[in-house]
Amino acid sequence: MINRTLSSHLRAMALKFPVISVTGPRQSGKTTLCKSVFENYTYVSLENPDIREFALSDPKGFLNQYDKYVILDEVQNVPNLFSYIQSIVDESGINGQFILSGSQNFLLSQQISQSLAGRTYIFHLLPLSLEELKPTDYYFRNTSAHIFYGGYPRLFKNDIHPNDFYPSYIQTYIERDLRTIANVHNLNTFRQFIKICAGRTGQLINTNAIGNQLGINHKTVKSWLSILESSFIIFTLKPWHKNFNKRIIKSSKLYFYDTGLACSLLGIKDVSEIDVHFAKGALFENFIISEVLKNNYNANTVKDLYFWRDNTGHEIDLIIEETHHAKFTEIKSSQTINPSYFKGLDYLYKISENENNERYVVYGGDEIQNRTDYTILPWNSLKPLQ
Fold first, then answer.
1. Contact 22, 50 (CB under 8 A)
2. CA–CA separation, 143 vs 214, rounded Å?
3. Whole-structure pTM over 0.70, yes or no?
4. Residue 204 — very low, low, confident or very high, per pLDDT cuts 50/70/90?
């Protein structure tokens, strides 16, 4: 088993909270993680039809049977359990009593948030990060291979080629999961919608343009984007808004949690195709930002991530907001450093008028450079952005 960085945090928080919740995309390794960290717990999968029926029809009886030191997997299938769990943990006062996992972002539900507010610690387990892969035999020496394969554990555990894994993953998501998340009538149109999203990786979201391409209205596009976000297929970066006396772009940018999935949707069949693909730069940018996101989640130091662009063409790919300053980060797939990479960083640094702001360039090369005004980071050394 590949060691997951979240393991120690899970153990620590189970000593302080009665309920631990682990959510994330399907196949990201949630079940394996929970079983390995809490190996003495009873494991119950609510994907099992008989067990699910028991929990749905008799939640009290179900929780009387599984009321202590239990892992309830795919718990979003029986949302009524949460209010009963609240009563149980309030009465017992036992920490680490329930471990809940789910492959959809079930914790966004208002009902669930209210039921377990203050009682649960929430973890997001994303696909494997570079830092998790480095000690293993699955670590590649070039960025294109990592972009192509992505980070889903089953690919490595079962030696599955991305061309076999991702089409099945997408089909399963659309034909099974999607039906439980929302009432989408035209699955074929939704398939095209996901592919269009992959083609717009790293771009500003234009719901009207997407809708026109598919023959659907912008409200449906917004709804479908929300579905992809809630099931951990995509995430968005919001623009960084500061009063710099310039009109700032207000649309968000779209990214995939896993670049392997994006490559599959783009029809990329081999690592070698990435270097000549029109989306190479966007996929590299997506890869770096998703790695920063994973590292922050895994380190339990989730920070707000943004991008910045004004209407005159100045742009910064990634801004990590700290308490008293920000990290301005330019992302380039090239293996060499070009002086033009610093222009946007210098412009924003100047108008931001905060000398504590830091300037970074992440590139496709191998060398760390600590310059006077900038830090140059290779694609596989992203800890300074944590």
1. no
2. 33
3. yes
4. very high
In angstroms, rounded to a whole number, what is the distance separating the alpha carbons of residues 121 and 187? 35
Provide the 8-state DSSP code for 303. Answer: -
Identify residue 343 by its one-letter amino acid code: K
- pLDDT the model gives residue 107: 52
Give the chain's end-to-end CA distance (angstroms, integer): 25
List the domain boundaries for the chain: 7-124, 129-386
CA-closest candidate to residue 19, choices 84, 109, 103: 84
The label of the residue with tokens 């994907």 reads: 47
Written as one letter, the residue type at 376 is I
25 secondary structure, DSSP code: S
Domain covering 7-124: architecture: 3-Layer(aba) Sandwich (3.40)
- Residues 288 and 331 sit within 8 Å (Cβ to Cβ): yes
Of the listed ranges 31-45, 166-180, 184-198, 353-367, the one predicted with least confidence: 166-180
Q: What are the b/e assignments for 98-125, b being 16+ CB within 10 Å?
A: bbbbbbbbbbeeeebeebbeebbbebbb
Average pLDDT value for the chain: 92
